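Blinded run. Sample ID left blank on purpose so nobody reads anything into the name before looking at the predicted structure. Input follows.
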Amino acid sequence: MSTLNNESTQSQCKNILRHLQSGKTINQLQALNEYGCFRLGARIYDLKKRGHSIDSRMVKSRNGKKYAEYSMRVN
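Blinded prediction complete.
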């Protein structure tokens, strides 16, 4: 079931896509602070389903916690 019917979700996807297309990476904390997005993984999934090629990698923080960081190859 697609969640892209929700206006807020569409807005988050648009903002996150623009962020990635500018050559920046994004993680959950950035998505929450910059776009009010609590579910970055779900928005990345939505964008991938729409045909966008988004890479992910696991990053280890200073305190040893791991989190996903997403990026896009920009031409």
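Unblinding after everyone has recorded impressions. Strands lie at 26-27, 55-60, 66-71.
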